[in-house]
Each structure stands twice: as C-alpha cells, then as structure tokens.
C-alpha cells in the first residue's frame, strides 16, 4: 500500500509546474486544517514523509520550512516536529461574484497606489467586447489586511473620467466603484473572468509568497452605454487565501 501511495503522490506532483516543495507545503497545510495532523501532535518524520510522498528529503525539509515560517509547526532537535496551530481561515480575500459585492471594499483592508501613469494605450484585439478608449490612466494598487498583502492589481480607467476622481478615491474604492459612482456614466455591461495560475517574480515579491505559488487571476471590465471599455482591472490574489462563493438559488 505504501508503494502505491508514494507513486500516486509523486505522479500528482509531476503534473504541475509549481515547485514540488510548494505543492507539498499545500498538502501538509491541508492535513493540519482538516485535523489529520492535530494541534499539539507530532507529525511523521522526514524519512517517513519521504517514503510516503516519493520525493527527496530536501524537498520535504523545504516544505516543512514553509509551514514553520507560517508558524504552523515547530521543530525540536531530538524530539521531532509538532503542530503549533491551525492555518488562519478568516479569509483574507473573498472574491465576490455578484455586482453589489464588487462595489464594496473590505472595511479592514488598506489600498496603496504603487504607481500611476497617464496616456496608456491599450490594444483593441485584446478584448472581445467593448471599444477601447483613446487612452487610460493606469494604477498599480496593493491591497493589504493586517500587514498581509493579499491582492496586487493593475487598474485601467478611461482617462476622460479621471478628472472626476481624487487620490482618496484611488485608495479607498474597489475598481468597479471607481467608475460606478461617477455622474453621467451608465454601466450597461460588466463581468469578471477568473483563472488559476502561479506567481511570477513580481507577484511573489508584492504578495510576499513563494515563486510559482498558486494565485488566482481576476479580470474585471466595465462597459458604458456608448460601448466604451471604461474600466479594465487585472488583479492577482494569493491562492492560499481565496474563497469564492456563488449563490445558486435565492
């Protein structure tokens, strides 16, 4: 049985481009979260995990090092490794899927503008719906909660609208609300697309996560009654802290 488990785990790890130790850290984190590894209990040794997972001991140590960095486990010389606490599950970034949710900022989140550029031109062929504006203001914004970054986003706003927006708007409103609140603008179409990916170097740096760690990419667009793309927002969320709720019946 142990050989079958080992081969299955190793095979599953090989199917992803994400680094093996990051995948293993996710597996081990889930064991703590599910209660398979209970708080205060001693987890299997490195040698046992090598046997179970079919990977090198260095990979196991890297994965455990990630959990230790997160404060989930403690390692003691000659005693072993023990579960210290459960992963936090107060959801850093709940991705909304309804219109009202996309307009509401988290009350306990801070938004900082890392960069701002004007006269940015976007290519029409990149968008299946809506007509691109002549130019956009481009904001790079970082969303943080309790000193933990959870979202980095590139926001493009039709430059003709930006004279109606203030710096405080940029640091307090969701991307959708930036255009929804403007007078004489009617949003007739808005949607978002979610994809799962892995963190590149810039994303890993901004979100303080490992290179190639899982992330959720979200593109949100808004189109006005003239058919113009007045907003394009490309966000990247930490994959380990994302929850998506969709109401099917009401």
Automatic annotation (TrEMBL):
Pfam family, one: UTRA
Start and end residues of each HTH gntR-type domain: 18-86
Keywords from the UniProt entry: DNA-binding, Transcription, Transcription regulation
One Gene Ontology biological process: negative regulation of DNA-templated transcription
Protein name as annotated: GntR family transcriptional regulator
Record bears the keyword DNA-binding: yes
Domain of life: Bacteria
GO molecular function list: DNA binding; DNA-binding transcription factor activity
